[in-house]
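Need tokens for this chain, all 216 residues.
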Amino acid sequence: MRISTGIDGLDYILRGGLFPGRTYLVHGEPGTGKTTLGLHFLAAGEAGLLITFGQSAEHIRADATSLGLKIGQITMLDLTPPPELFSEVQTYDIFSPAEVEREPISQQIGKSIEELTPQRIFIDSFEHFGNLGADAFHRRRLAQSFFRFATRRGGTLIIGSEDGECARDVDGVIELEFSHDGRSIRVTKFRGSDFYAGYHPMRLTGTGVKIFLSAV
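Here are the structure tokens for all 216 residues:
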């Protein structure tokens, strides 16, 4: 059984789509289309959850509307810093900021997933989640634990990130690139299935992501 990514060309590259109940990384520099790909994924389903550490939920909804992607049924958990935080003075005499913020953020994410039981979850700017770990070891353990928690009821998780630190712990990796030659997409890891390897041309249009398959 497969589920659609919401992008025909990507489904073709993956020979039918994603496996439900797995975790996938969309990796790329800023501006390569990670958020837009995640919106396609959410719009292709019904019960979905978007967790954002980067752009505000308001901006993401506006972007989706401009692309014609219908995400009105999607619940958004906005974990971006509020404006008031800039004027507040906080000191951390004993614990680091990551240790102070990890528990409330984890509780909010856990509560949302437990209450909604979303079938599709997309996290925008997952590298911010990783920063909740005190060091590399704890960051990896935190990520591994979260992946299992988020998918244990059959939900499919896509995380968008500028770094590839968690690539070894996910079930698939989708790389987005933008250079003077244009945009491209390629799959570098996909557990449980073959896929069409190599770079495939990609465009970000007024209606979202368009993929033009290279010779396969």
